[in-house]
Amino acid sequence: MEGVGGEDAAASSPVAQWGHEVWRMFQYYLDKTTPHTVYRWIGSAAVVAIYCLRVFYVEGFYIVSYGLGIYLLNLLIGFLSPLVDPEIEHSDGALLPTKGSDEFKPFIRRLPEFKFWYSFTKAFCIAFVMTFFSMFDVPVFWPILLCYWIVLFVLTMRRQITHMIKYKYIPFSMGKQKYGGKRSSASSSGSRGD
Q1: Count of alpha carbons within 13 angstroms of residue 96, beta-carbon side
Q2: Whole-model pTM?
């Protein structure tokens, strides 16, 4: 009697099985894109361009764009913030070094790059779909929304940059650092002898 009208009946229905297979295939291809950072962001840039063209030609949906901008600002703050904020949380785990004598600890983001990319792209796709429904086209004076968003962005970034300076971290790395050690000192001493 387990299969009659319970969870098992819903899970074994053809529609549920098809949905599960579609989700597994989507997750498979999403996982395959993980190492291809540049191509993922190029695809996202294409999605952003399509959304911008849609809003430009329709001349509306500014409130959707404003909500999208606020959401993206929230994602950016998570991307630039450390996993454990020394101002808020005290942890025994990896913290940011606060003094020059502290041991090096790698910067661990609160929002990893892949999740940032995925949320960024998904937000633009959802906003694009919203532009096809007239109930989301609320009439607003868009220059005020743009000015308010710019002020919000500047204030938020100033606070984030102040936090970065205070705790001496940079949320970006430009590849593996190379040590120039003895080669640079040997070449400089050889040039002084001439």
Answers
A1: 23
A2: 0.73
